[in-house]
Amino acid sequence: MSAPNKSYDPVEVEALQPEQVERMRDEALAAIAAAADLDALTHVKTAHAGGTSPLALANREIGALPPQAKAEAGKRVGQARGAVNQALAARQAELEAERDARVLVEEAVDVTLPYDRVPAGARHPLTTLSNRIEDIFVAMGYEVAEGPEVEAEWFNFDALNISVDNPVRSEQDTLFVAAADGSQDSGLVLRTHTSGVQIRSLLERELPVYVIAPGRVYRSDELDATHTPVFNQVELLAVDEGLTMADLKGTLDHMVVSLFGEGMTTRLRPNHFPFTEPSAEMDMLCYVCRGESVGNPDRPCRTCSSEGWIELGGCGMVNPKVLVACGVDPQKYSGFAFGFGIERMLMFRHNVEDMRDIVEGDVRFTLPFGMEI
Amino acid sequence: MRVPLSWLREYVELPAGTTGRDVQAKLISAGLEVETVEQLGAGLQGPLVVGEVLTIEELEGFKKPIRFCTVDVGKANGTGEPQEIVCGARNFAVGDKVVVILPGGVLPGDFRISARKTYGRVSHGMICSARELGMGEDHDGIVVLPPEHEAGTDAIALLELVDEVLDIAVTPDRGYCLSLRGVARETAIAYGLPLSDPALIDVPGPNPDGHPVRIDDPTGCDRFTARTVTGVNHEARSPIWLQRRLQKVGMRPISLAVDITNYVMFEVGQPLHAYDRSRLNGPITVRRAQPGEKLTTLDGAERVLDGEDLVIADDSGPIGLAGVMGGAHTEIADSGPDSGTSEIVIEAAHFAPVPIARTARRHKLASEASRRFERGTDPQATSAAAQRAVDLLVLLAGGTAEPGVTEVVLPYAPRTVAMAADHPDRVAGTTYGRETVVRRLQEIGCDVYGSDELIVTVPSWRPDLGAPNDLAEEVIRLQGYENLPSTLPRPRPGRGLTATQRLRRRVGRALAGAGYVEAPCYPFVSAADFDRLGLGADDPRRRLVLLANPLDDTEPGLRTTLLPGLLATLRRNHGRGAQDVALFETGLVFHPTDGATAPERLPVDRRPTDEEIEALKAALPEQPQHAAAVLSGARERDGWWGKGRPATWADAVEAGRTVAREAGVELIVRPAQYAPFHPGRCAAYTATAADGTQVPVGYAGELHPRVVAALGLPERTCAMEVDLDVIERVGGGRVTGPHVSTFPVATQDVALVVDAAVPAADVEAALRDGAGELLESLRLFDIFTGEQIGEGRKSLAYALRFRAPDRTLTAEDASAAREAAVAAAAARTGAVLRS
């Protein structure tokens, strides 16, 4: 706009006059304030802060000033430009916020819409409950032992001190594999408990043995609301030096606390099993009423029928005859064992009223249990 | 075992006011499972009295015959006048003594009696049946009492109608508790009271004058007492107290002689048998039956005997199944053409448990006697029990005891057990001390000697006590299981779940995460299942492990595939209205082992040898773990987001990959034709084993339409099944951490045209091989068929990504690799670049 100034007279550079600079600045600020939207602001920015804006041009003139005038003019123009840039940024932020508010409102959706696009899956609670129990014992140092479901009678019965004449070895109770001639003399059965796994563990593992044996077992039973011929058990076996019934009791107590919470405990009642001696029936404190429904008709408990205790299963000290059959010296070692049904525990832990719901595989039963229990 | 509290009190002087519930709690703590305490006569209120029937007027014109009676009830009605009562029963006559409840009385079940009009008359009370009185289930007629009871007598006391009965589930080791004697012993111990033992009575010594008895089988019978009573009045009936006690323990009174034998059995625990002496031919013999011998038992059934059956015989042949049931011929009779029995031979014997159990099972004939012999009776109690029966026959039937006493007794030694005095302490994990141990053992009837090492002679009624742990249990239960401390053992550190166990859990989670619901199914199958699945006649899956006694005769086999169970479950869900169903199961299948024979019966008194164990395991069928999934309906549903898509073969095939991925196994998928799948929509999986061989893993795809129809499944149902054991075996290799190149990627797309029948997997494999090491990834992103491509052809479009580990690839590098890939595909699959 101006030719190089050869006279070095500051007064001759009009654009650097204070009034001029102030005017340029005020015009710019007014234009910024007047910009109605981001597009308008872009134009304002080009006109008042761009390379050819009056202030930018004025800035170029500073070089033509005599050295003594440069500082003051530079300061003046710099401050003006700073004010303009600041106002621009502020207006830019203001206008962007306005635009965002408007556009994001337009983009709003109904987040309450259902999204059942892919049907959900789930694991069966029998599996997850069994896993849960396994984990409690694995945390204590036990290992999970497994065995076949078609089992030799020796593992399922003989080694467990269940003699040939024991009624459980009749076709009323046990499902026998047919021999070649169709008779039940195959020596094989569908295992009636996972105790055969205990025998296998004692034969195969080094002492001491601490194992838990979950699995599917079979009895010659009709399916009804409380029975199923195919069910799941968890059994435990510990054989070590100096194990006692007190250890058995403590282990059971630990399990029910882990599964049902602090304050839970178990109770042993004498019973008889060929494979344990002494033997006991084990009950756990009712986790719902904690025994407070007993003799208290005002607070009946459905879970334990106001008995205060829930029957869990059988247990005891491993019969020394069982140890002998597995080549374990009963003078040196003792052991304890227990077993109980997962279906039953599932029923009372989750208020399942009909066994058939557990067995039939209806997805409406299984889905609410999800992936863990 | 039902135990009336009133009867129990005869042997233990329980404190006054002790209730059945009190005794129940004590006995439960001592280890007897007292299941219930029945309250007999609960709510019963008099006046309930003996009445004498004075007149009977038959009322006509009703649906059933009705009687209008007058009954003398003594002073019970306040007037002494005859009571007018309408009665529907007919089993009584004028002069009979009956039980009458008067207006104001209440029968069990809150049945309130008042004078009321019925059948046109006013009935002032009711003549009662046994069931109405809570005496038993007998409702054939009203109760007719023996004539000696006076009219007006209170019948509640006379008939002992108010009582408590403990019902005890006796475990097999405690046979002695199948008697009042045994339960009384436990009660006495529990209360710390003395026991009056009903078997502790004087018995005359044996002599040669009794009925002759010979034991030919000493392994089956080691003791036999025979006593004879003559002059028995066969018309004598059991007195009320005897009938009532039998009713309360659950026995039906039959005749005096039979009632007495039953009564003594419940009292002492020794089953007895009574023979009509006039029908015995010669000496009584205990022997095994001749195979094929016949015997008609008391229940009227003719039984063909087995050579193992222990029988009682006389010269005519078998006259009873020893310890199980007597024969009809020698049965005592209280009436009949030959008049009743007047001479009775009483048998009290000790039979070995095993033959009795086997005979009872063989003939499906469990009796009160066999239940007791199976569990073991007290061999020392035979003479006392026989004496009790003789005494009662003399007392109640007017008989005379013959002086002859037969006692065949084989040598018998009481059992002794040596046990360290602190053994119960070491079993329990607490300290009882020697004194307590000795006292408790003495309480149960043991003789105990010794100090640190105890020599314990166990009582004859406890055949279950044979080892130190048995004795320890007695001490611990009497000290109270509830008093055991609670301690925790310290196992050595474990190694956690095995790889197999972890894999199985991961597979379950992965399939559930992919939308499948776990459904464990019963493993029972039939040949018809395989017909419906369309399996060929010689398909190996038809070779089943069969059950000798299946739950359902139509399903005698064990599954060789998980699909029948899962498909049935899918159909059930569908039938109940579920539309989109995806299920999975992991579980065992069963394959018979070729040439397997029944394993030898191994001993239990030592560890079997390793060879014996291996032989045992070799007899088992193969039982691999499978995983399977089935699905139908929509895999993705329609919704506000747009169209869904149905479940297809591709989802089923992917389910197999989902399983394999958890084991780090990459499945190779090939087209296959395999039942029950659609021949054009079936994939066979294989995997590469460590030695480089291809091993079969399983199949997946859409089911054959005929299978879908035969099983009544939703259209286009799809399925997958793999052998999880194989997957685990080939997988699980440690992953090598890849080197991640940060140089830029070069992408190239190719479209290749091949015959429609060429599997995409072949084209992809060829491309990979041809592209070489620079290929980072390859993805099929489109398939196109149409006129431009030509009939029977398809175009496969792949995105190839190339990258070098050490440099930026040039366009020439990437193109060269792509061309090499295309060349390989052309050579192996006939692919041509789409122009």
TrEMBL record, chain A:
Q: Which GO terms describe its molecular function?
A: ATP binding; magnesium ion binding; phenylalanine-tRNA ligase activity; tRNA binding
Q: Which cofactor does it need?
A: Mg(2+)
Cellular localisation: Cytoplasm
Read off the InterPro entries from this record.
aa-tRNA-synth_II, aa-tRNA-synth_II/BPL/LPL, Phe-tRNA-synth_IIc_asu, Phe-tRNA_ligase_II_N, Phe_tRNA_ligase_alpha1_bac, Phenylalanyl-tRNA_Synthase, tRNA-bd_arm
Q: What note does UniProt attach to the cofactor annotation?
A: Binds 2 magnesium ions per tetramer.
The record lists the catalysed reaction(s) as: tRNA(Phe) + L-phenylalanine + ATP = L-phenylalanyl-tRNA(Phe) + AMP + diphosphate + H(+)
The terms describing its cellular component in GO are: cytoplasm
Pfam family, any one: tRNA-synt_2d
An annotated GO BP: phenylalanyl-tRNA aminoacylation
Can you state the subunit structure given in the record? Tetramer of two alpha and two beta subunits.
Quote the HAMAP family the UniProt record gives.
Phe_tRNA_synth_alpha1
Put simply, this protein is called: Phenylalanine--tRNA ligase alpha subunit
Please name the source species. Answer: Actinacidiphila guanduensis
Gene encoding it? pheS
Automatic annotation (TrEMBL), chain B:
> Its Gene Ontology molecular function terms?
ATP binding; magnesium ion binding; phenylalanine-tRNA ligase activity; tRNA binding
Reaction it catalyzes: tRNA(Phe) + L-phenylalanine + ATP = L-phenylalanyl-tRNA(Phe) + AMP + diphosphate + H(+)
Q: Which cofactor does it need?
A: Mg(2+)
| Annotated EC | 6.1.1.20
Q: Where located?
A: Cytoplasm
Predominant localisation class:
cytoplasm
**Which SMART domains does this UniProt record tie to the protein?**
B3_4 (SM00873), B5 (SM00874), FDX-ACB (SM00896)
Sequence ranges assigned to domain FDX-ACB in this UniProt record:
741-834
Q: Which residues form the B5 domain?
A: 412-486
- Under which main EC class is this enzyme filed? ligase
Pfam family name, one? tRNA_synthFbeta
Write out the entry's keywords from A to Z.
Aminoacyl-tRNA synthetase, ATP-binding, Cytoplasm, Ligase, Magnesium, Metal-binding, Nucleotide-binding, Protein biosynthesis, RNA-binding, tRNA-binding
Give GO BP annotations, semicolon-separated: phenylalanyl-tRNA aminoacylation
Q: Where does Mg(2+) bind?
A: 464, 470, 473-474
Q: Which InterPro entries match?
A: aa-tRNA-synth_II/BPL/LPL (IPR045864), B3/B4_tRNA-bd (IPR005146), DNA-bd_dom_put_sf (IPR009061), Fdx_antiC-bd (IPR005121), Fdx_antiC-bd_sf (IPR036690), NA-bd_OB-fold (IPR012340), Phe-tRNA-ligase_IIc_bsu (IPR045060), Phe-tRNA-ligase_IIc_bsu_bact (IPR004532)
Residues in TRNA-binding domain copies: 42-156
Sorted alphabetically, the Gene Ontology cellular component annotations on this record are: phenylalanine-tRNA ligase complex
Q: How is the cofactor bound?
A: Binds 2 magnesium ions per tetramer.
Q: Does the keyword Protein biosynthesis apply?
A: yes
UniProt xrefs under PANTHER family:
PHENYLALANINE--TRNA LIGASE BETA SUBUNIT (PTHR10947:SF0), PHENYLALANYL-TRNA SYNTHETASE BETA CHAIN AND LEUCINE-RICH REPEAT-CONTAINING PROTEIN 47 (PTHR10947)
The record's subunit annotation is: Tetramer of two alpha and two beta subunits.
Q: Which family does it belong to?
A: Belongs to the phenylalanyl-tRNA synthetase beta subunit family. Type 1 subfamily.
Q: What is this protein called?
A: Phenylalanine--tRNA ligase beta subunit
Please give the organism.
Answer: Actinacidiphila guanduensis
